[in-house]
Structures are given as C-alpha cells and as structure tokens.
Amino acid sequence: MANLSEDNGEETPLQVRLNGVATFIGMVGLSVAGVVLGVLAIRYFTGHTKNPDGTVQFRAGTTGLKQGFMGAIRILTIALLLCLRDFHWP
C-alpha cells in the first residue's frame, strides 16, 4: 500500500497519451494562426479589406507608412491572440 502513495516521477501511460494529444492540438492551433496571418496579410496588402464606411484600407502608392504599419500591427495582433488561445494558463 505504501508503494501506491509514492510519487516516483514517472509518467503514467494516460499522461503520456494526453501530452501527445495536447502537443498535437497546439500544433494545429499554431498552424491555423499562421494561415490566418497569411490570409489577412494578403487580403490587406492587395486592397481587399474595407473600412466600415466602405473605402479600401490599403492602396499601393497612396496609403501612408503609418497607416500601413498600423494595419500590419492589427493583423499581427489577431494572429497572436489566436496563438495565445492555444496555451493553457494556470
């Protein structure tokens, strides 16, 4: 009975399997975030995204550096939030 209550540091087969599933889910989540980042960046820089008033957000040659930078920051924020959802916080 004393052997059952001791923690010898070894992982049980269930823990090993659950760690594998968690790793797989994390990889899928990061892959989805990467795809979303790519799609949003392509849509933004090709002029397919619009403001709420219907105007195009990015026009090559006419959009200022600050506006382009802020659009890129918005895209990175969305992708980062998708990545952070996959991590388990205590």
Automatic annotation (TrEMBL):
Transmembrane segments: 21-45
A single Gene Ontology CC term: plasma membrane
Keywords per UniProt: Magnesium, Membrane, Transmembrane, Transmembrane helix
Signal peptide limits: none
InterPro entries registered for this protein in UniProt: ATPase_P-typ_TM_dom_sf
Domain of life where this protein originates: Eukaryota
UniProt-recorded Gene Ontology molecular function terms: P-type calcium transporter activity
Organism encoding this protein: Aegilops tauschii subsp. strangulata (Goatgrass)
Protein name: Uncharacterized protein
